[in-house]
Every structure is written in C-alpha cells, then in structure tokens.
Amino acid sequence: MSTNRQPESLATLLGGRTAAIDATMPPVAFGIGWFLADKSIAVGAGAALAVSVLIGAWRLLRGAKPRAVLIGALAVCVSALIALRTGDAEDFFLPRILTNLVSLLGWAISIVVRWPFLGVIVGAVLGQKTRWRRDPALLRAYSRASWVWVGQYLFRLVVFIPLWLAGQTGALTVAQIVLTWPLVAACLAVSWWVLRRSLPADHPGLRLEKDRDESVQP
User: Fold this and answer.
1) How many other C-beta atoms lie within 10 A of the C-beta of residue 123?
2) pLDDT tens, residue by residue, 29-53
3) pLDDT tens-digit series, residues 93-134
4) CA distance linking residue 26 with residue 96, whole number of Å
5) Helices 17-36 and 41-61 sit at what angle, rounded to 10 degrees?
C-alpha cells in the first residue's frame, strides 16, 4: 500500500487562478477599449462582452460547467448595461464593488455564527460535509483563517471605492489586474499559514482521521 501524498494547501485544494484570470480579462478589455476609442463606453462595453464570449466558449470546450460560464457572462452584461445606462465609464466596476462588499459581510457573518465560509468550502471539496465542525481546533483555525479573506475584500473596497468616486476608470482597470489573481494568491498563502499555525502540532490537519483512513487503501 502507498501512503505517499502531495502536501496539501489551500492553493492546491481550491485553485482559483483560472477563475481569477477570467474575472480580470473583461474589465481590462473594457478599460483598454474605452481608452483607445476616445473614452467610448459603447466600445469598451463591446470589447468586454466580446472577451467574455471568447472566454466562455474556451471554457466550455475545456469542460467547464455551462452554468458557471453563463454566470460570468451575465455579470459582464450587467456591468456593461450599468455603465451604458449611467453614461459613466467607472460604473462598469460598480457591480464588482458591490460583490466585494457582499462577500466581506457574508464572510464576517459566517465567522460570527461559527460557520466560517473557508471551512464550508474546504469541507465540501474534501467531502467532509459538516464533520469538520465537530473538531473544535479545526473550527477555530478555519475561523481565524477566514478573517484573512475578510481582509482581502476590505482591501479591495478601500482601493476601489475612492477610485470609483473620483471617476478614475483607468486606475480602476489597473487595480482590477493587481487586486485579482495576485491578491487571491496572497490571500490563499496567508490564510493557509494562519490555518496551520492555529492547529495543534499533533492535529491531523484539514483531513480528519476518518478522511485519512478512507483515503489510504491497501
């Protein structure tokens, strides 16, 4: 029997790079199209929608779930419609500001009610359902690490909101690049560090003893 296992981390379990890059490309296309077309919101919106369609088609060919692709395309459509409706290019980024605000509140509340979202997500990935909540050390560790994710959303809001209020579409485009995958990668690394530091030295880790027994087959 083989018990060799690759070291697990939040980055390997949750991934996130592909989704983060996909989320970055339409806003960047909007900003570039808007700038090159003499600040035309229509051109920027068209560029964002075109890139969104191309990304969706590529992901479908790669086996992505149609629902996930549709949600991504719908989000871009809503952003484009808001900017076209208001006539302010910076409003293309308004839905992203709102989703970060909702995420911040959701993650913070989940910690307070002792259902930290990080535990919910990782538990689902590992097939643990809610068994992780019966481990006090793991519940505490997930709660502490989830605050890192709250900080991620707060940091984005601290940057995005002043730029949006100032009508800085170009700066919002740049911020979208910097604060998507690089920030997600940093969040995964820091929350993983917090998670490990919060667990006792003799703790089995993210996988509970039952999970480890089931994963090792003769």
Assistant:
1) 20
2) 999 999 999 999 999 999 999 999 9
3) 999 999 999 999 999 999 999 999 999 999 998 888 889 999
4) 12
5) 150
What does each C-alpha distance from 173 to 7, 105, 165, 177, 178 come to in angstroms?
36, 24, 14, 7, 9
**Cβ–Cβ < 8 Å for 184, 20:** yes
Question: How high is the pLDDT of residue 17?
Answer: 67
**What counts of helices (H) and strands (E) characterise the chain?**
10, 0
Task: Quote the pTM value.
Answer: 0.86
Contacts of 28 (CB under 8 A, 6+ apart): 173, 176, 177
What is the per-residue DSSP string for 81-130? HHHHHH--GGGGGHHHHHHHHHHHHHHHHHHHTT--HHHHHHHHHTT-TT
145: Cβ–Cβ under 8 A, 6 or more apart, which residues?
Answer: 116, 118, 191, 192, 194, 195, 198
The first and second tokens of residue 98, run together, are 């709102």
What are the domain boundaries of the chain?
10-215
